[in-house]
């Protein structure tokens, strides 16, 4: 195994699950390992405690004649359940079929470390970097980055930079270099419907009281029309329409046709807002999704009961120029107005993040495209992403600069799911990409 893969394996062995407080010591140990790695490369590295998980910073000695590039990544990972579905233990990395298998390989430890190792390689080869470099790594991305914005505010001077680079997005397909120039925003919500004071016998009382399980189904149903359009009042008011050049460009991207999304997802048929392709629905249109729903008996066989309450958890993906705070109020109003008769409705708004869009043809965008071409040997495609990295828009608001999103995960990487993996080739490409990127951004 190469020393680079050995480093990655060490990094992957930390179960740095940010949402689970029992893993807080592992998150900390992972951050400490990173500081050690960065300091060992000759960078000025430091660990910064927050209310929850630490932020790791490192930089090269700044030189006034050089541009400053900030590279962001996250070393926290998603939980591993359902554990029985993993083919090998999530925190014991293995290479099979040219892929590295472990939690965090492609979200986001593999890409993050590829940047670190690219810098290490350049320092070894050239003794210095073509730019001033800042690494900013957080341990709270998967829980919505609750402490990062305040950290950016407090450290604005230290973090001042010309451009930011992040590799925490996807490639449309294996071998197709991908520059993303947009991300969807997000707002989460949870609804609880309450009916009788306790579970009831469905024969003794059924028919005379509202069933909260039926009511939650009706409430969920109120969100869309039969063609997938969202029925929340004013929801689309601020949606920026797709531009003609984007629609043209996306329709020709290999690996992004409706059939490709069917193959990757295994769904029997495409479904979504009428008038848009799958790529357009994912990259440029907002959604309302149920992430979890529950009520009543879930065990074997039948149990004749009317559940006392029911819940559903939602996430709404947002696009430019929707504002998460404005949309959450509209969501709350919708749920309260559509609460079925006979139950009470409680709406809790969860975390949120703004959407992001930038010009892929800006000078820095062009430099990123060149770097991708050099690393992969073919011209990159330009897409927006369906996923969210809320801190990217916050970077723009606080640090005043744009972010280049250079994807390295492929559709089969199974991020957030069992058997997360990352092709060894993409890890190696990531190391090369970092070297090309810093060279192109220096110009
Ligand atoms: N790396 C993902 C985001 C991502 C994945 C963007 C693939 C584009 C393509 C990130 O770690 C993530 O999962 N973000 C969350 C954000 C949420 C917790 C605020 C998401 O998108 O659900
Ligand atoms: Zn993630």
Shape, please? globular
- Unreliable stretches, pLDDT < 50, 5 or more residues? none
Overall strand count: 19
Q: Which fold name is given in CATH as the topology of the largest domain?
A: Aminopeptidase
N→C terminal distance: 35 Å
Mean pLDDT: 97
Q: From the 3D coordinates, which CATH architecture of the largest domain would you assign?
A: 3-Layer(aba) Sandwich
What class would the helix/strand composition place it in?
A: alpha+beta
Q: List ligands, each type once.
A: ligand BES, zinc ion
Number of domains: 2
Quick description:
The chain has 443 residues and is an alpha+beta fold.
3D structure, described in words:
The chain folds into 2 domains: about 5-185 and about 355-440, Zn peptidases (Aminopeptidase, 3-Layer(aba) Sandwich); about 185-240 and about 285-355, Alpha-Beta Plaits, CATH 3.30.70.360. It is an alpha+beta fold and about 450 residues long. The strands form 5 sheets. Strands 1-2-6-3-7-18-8-17 form an 8-stranded mixed β-sheet. The protein contains 12 helices and 19 strands. A hairpin with a 2-residue loop joins strand 4 (about 95) and strand 5. Helix 1 (about 5-10) packs antiparallel against helix 3, helix 3 (about 105-125) packs across helix 12 (about 425-440) and helix 10 packs antiparallel against helix 12. It is globular, with a radius of gyration of 23 Å. The structure holds ligand BES and zinc ion. Ligand BES binds near residues 107, 108, 142, 169 and 390.
Key structural traits:
443 residues, alpha+beta, Aminopeptidase, Alpha-Beta Plaits, 2 domains, 8-stranded mixed sheet, 4-stranded antiparallel sheet, 12 helices, 19 strands, globular, binds ligand BES, binds zinc ion
């Amino acid at each position: 195994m190469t020393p680079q893969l050995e480093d990655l394996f060490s990094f992957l062995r930390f179960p740095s699950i940010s949402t689970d407080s029992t893993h807080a010591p592992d998150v900390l140990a992972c951050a400490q390992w990173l500081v050690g790695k960065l300091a060992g490369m000759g960078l000025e590295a430091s660990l910064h405690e927050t209310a929850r998980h630490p932020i790791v910073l490192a930089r090269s000695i700044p030189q006034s004649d050089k541009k400053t590039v900030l590279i962001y990544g996250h070393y926290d990972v998603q939980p591993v359940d359902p554990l029985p579905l993993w083919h090998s233990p999530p925190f014991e990395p293995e290479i099979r079929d040219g892929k590295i298998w472990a939690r965090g390989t492609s979200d986001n430890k593999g890409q993050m470390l590829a940047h670190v190792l690219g810098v290490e390689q350049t320092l070894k080869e050239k003794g210095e970097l073509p730019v001033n470099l800042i690494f900013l790594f957080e341990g709270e991305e998967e829980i919505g980055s609750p402490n990062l914005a305040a950290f950016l505010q407090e450290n604005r001077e230290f973090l001042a930079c010309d451009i930011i680079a992040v590799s925490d997005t996807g490639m449309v397909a294996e071998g197709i270099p991908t520059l993303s120039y947009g991300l969807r925003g997000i707002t989460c919500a949870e609804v609880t419907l309450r009916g009788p004071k306790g579970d009831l016998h469905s024969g003794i009382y059924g028919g005379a009281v509202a069933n909260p399980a039926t009511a939650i189904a009706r409430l969920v149903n109120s969100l869309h029309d039969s063609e997938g359009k969202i029925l929340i009042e004013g929801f689309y008011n601020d949606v920026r329409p797709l531009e003609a050049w984007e629609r043209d460009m996306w329709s020709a991207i290999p690996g992004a046709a409706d059939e490709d999304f069917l193959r990757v997802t295994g769904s029997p048929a495409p479904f979504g807002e009428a008038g848009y392709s799958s790529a357009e629905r994912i990259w440029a249109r907002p959604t309302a999704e149920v992430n979890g729903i529950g009520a009543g008996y879930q065990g074997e066989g039948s149990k004749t009961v009317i559940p006392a309450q029911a819940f559903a958890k939602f996430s709404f993906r947002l696009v430019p120029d929707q504002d998460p705070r404005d949309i959450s109020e509209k969501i709350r109003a919708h749920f309260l107005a559509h609460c079925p008769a006979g139950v009470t409705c409680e709406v809790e708004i969860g975390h949120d993040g703004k959407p992001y869009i930038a010009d892929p043809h800006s000078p820095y965008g062009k430099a990123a495209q060149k770097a991708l071409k050099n690393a992969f040997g073919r011209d990159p495609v330009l897409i927006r992403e369906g996923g969210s990295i809320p801190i990217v828009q916050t970077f723009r608001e606080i640090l005043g600069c744009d972010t280049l999103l250079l994807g390295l995960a492929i559709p089969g990487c199974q991020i957030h799911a069992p058997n997360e993996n990352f092709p060894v080739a993409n890890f190696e490409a990531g190391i090369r990409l970092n070297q090309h990127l810093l060279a192109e951004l220096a110009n």
